[in-house]
Specification:
Blueprint lengths: L3 H18 L3 H14 L4 H14 L10 H17 L3 H14 L4 H13 L3 H14 L4 H13 L3 H14 L4 H16 L3 H4 L3 H7 L4 H9 L15 H11 L4 H13 L3 H14 L4 H28 L4 H28 L4 H13 L3 H11 L6 H14 L3 H11 L9 H17 L3 H12 L8 H10 L13
Length: 479
């Protein structure tokens, strides 16, 4: 047999199904567990086992008696395995835990994380979906599912995950940026730029929406149906509600949200314009319109960048891409600056604006914003590292060094690896320039212990040990 483990797994799966037929749930769970151990990449084995686990516990929704106590040891093992990045062991412990309580959202999230790390995307998506089912507002569950679905190209559902996060916390800049990134990636994967010769080709291939099809049908064009009955098209139902109550702002907002979800962004802006007019410029509607307009700009920028990447010899395409990126950044700065006036206590928004200023090298504007954002414990380390960079690039190296040292008091490589490495890198560069090679070597070694290929750290460490001289750090790679 070419795959003996696969054959054995199928035998256990068959025995498990037979046990299910006899309602022998204990033995069925054992059979499916054995099948999973032999072929851990088959999602059907997992799904069937979890179904049997629920039957074993009488569909009570809470699992075994004293499940909480029984799971304490398992959760400790999961934490230990995660610390060691031993994903196969974490996978096994999560499955053990789900046998005790197959309704536990955290255990499904643990399973999803372990499978995602082992490139078992289908199982990871299944597990994270079960986690989200248990708690649709859980930020970590939604983020995990959104990331897995994004990687699998399931853009609409992935975007909905980050949308739920953003609706729960409008200050979550990561969720907002992920929605924009997913939007751009969905455009690239829409069959467009690999297969179509121009933007017009892509637009021509895009299916018309329900309203457009119905409109074409009434005008004699080829539509989906000659008429659309109530309930058959959510978009048509919303448009009917608007015709019935044209002064109701909520109807326009609901239609705009639907169009936005379906990636009909210009049409969504039209509805938001009408809602804005009826509401006499309600700021929440204005901000939603700004968000959609930014999404449109990100899509256009992403499209231009992709065309430039595929045609490296065409300077005109690169210039257009660079121009659109600059326009997007300028507009993001304008929007964030205006919102800070309306939301003075939103530190996440200040951090986002500061980061935009940092990227366009307006360091004096970024510095006070990062200082303010560092007062938020959730943003403290991130802000201090970015603040330190801005001080260094603004010619205030000693102030920058203080920020990196302060950030490293609480930073660790496990929770925030990127900021951890950045802080050590900048300190290494600063000490290196000051001729304090021993201190520089210590910081470079900290980086190499967690990321051997980080930037030019290995080369710098070797040169320090050889006693070479170095140039100005601000003029080097910005990172």
């Amino acid at each position: 047999m070419s795959d003996p483990l696969g054959g054995a797994a199928q035998e256990w799966f068959k025995k498990g199904n037979e046990a299910m037929g006899r309602q022998n749930w204990d033995f069925a769970v054992e059979c499916f567990s054995n099948a999973i151990k032999m072929k851990p990449d088959v999602v059907l084995f997992r799904q069937t086992k979890h179904l049997c686990c629920r039957k074993l516990h009488g569909d009570n929704g809470t699992g075994a008696k004293m499940a909480g106590m029984k799971l304490m040891g398992i959760r400790g093992k999961i934490k230990k395995a995660r610390g060691k990045q031993d994903w196969a062991t974490l996978d096994q412990h999560a499955e053990d835990g789900l046998a005790v309580n197959p309704w536990d959202g955290q255990l499904f999230a643990d399973l999803g994380e372990a499978c995602a790390q082992q490139d078992r995307g289908e199982i990871a998506a299944y597990a994270y979906r079960k986690a989200v089912e248990s708690d649709k507002t859980n930020v970590a569950f939604n983020r995990g599912l959104g990331q897995v679905l994004h990687e699998r190209g399931e853009y609409k559902e992935a975007r909905n995950c980050f949308k739920r996060i953003y609706e729960a916390d409008p200050t979550d800049g990561d969720a907002r940026s992920m929605m924009g990134r997913i939007d751009a990636d969905s455009v690239m994967d829409r069959g467009g730029y690999e297969k179509a010769g121009s933007t017009q080709d892509v637009k021509a291939e895009k299916p018309t929406n329900a309203y457009e099809e119905d409109r074409q049908a009434r005008r004699g064009g080829k539509g989906r149906n000659e008429s659309v009955a109530p309930g058959e098209s959510e978009e048509m139902d919303m448009r009917a509600a608007i015709r019935k109550e044209p002064e109701n702002v909520n109807h326009y907002m609901k239609l705009a949200n639907l169009l936005r979800t379906d990636r009909q962004l210009p049409q969504a802006v039209e509805q938001l314009d009408k809602a804005l007019e009826l509401s006499k410029n309600d700021t929440s509607i204005l901000e939603e319109k700004e968000d959609v307009e930014l999404e449109i700009m990100r899509e256009r920028s992403g499209e231009a960048a992709e065309r430039a990447r595929k045609n490296p010899d065409k300077e005109r395409l690169k210039e257009k891409s660079d121009g659109l990126k600059k326009e997007l950044m300028t507009r993001e700065v304008e929007v964030l600056a205006s919102r800070i006036d309306r939301h003075p206590n939103d530190m996440k928004m200040r951090f986002e604006l500061a980061d935009r200023y940092r990227k366009i090298k307006q360091f004096p504007k970024a510095i006070p914003l990062f200082q303010q954002a560092s007062a938020d414990t959730r943003l403290k380390e991130d802000s201090l590292v970015m603040l330190g960079e801005c001080f260094v690039r603004a010619g205030k190296a000693d102030l920058g060094r203080r920020q990196f040292i302060k950030a490293l008091e609480t930073l660790n490589a496990k929770d925030k690896p990127d900021f951890f490495k950045q802080a050590h890198y900048w300190l290494g560069r600063l000490y290196e320039k000051a001729g304090k090679n021993e201190e520089a070597e210590n910081h470079y070694t900290e980086i190499l212990s967690v990321d051997y290929d980080f930037r030019d750290v290995l080369k710098r460490l070797e040169e320090i040990q050889g006693g070479d001289e170095f140039g100005d750090i601000v003029d080097d790679d910005e990172g």
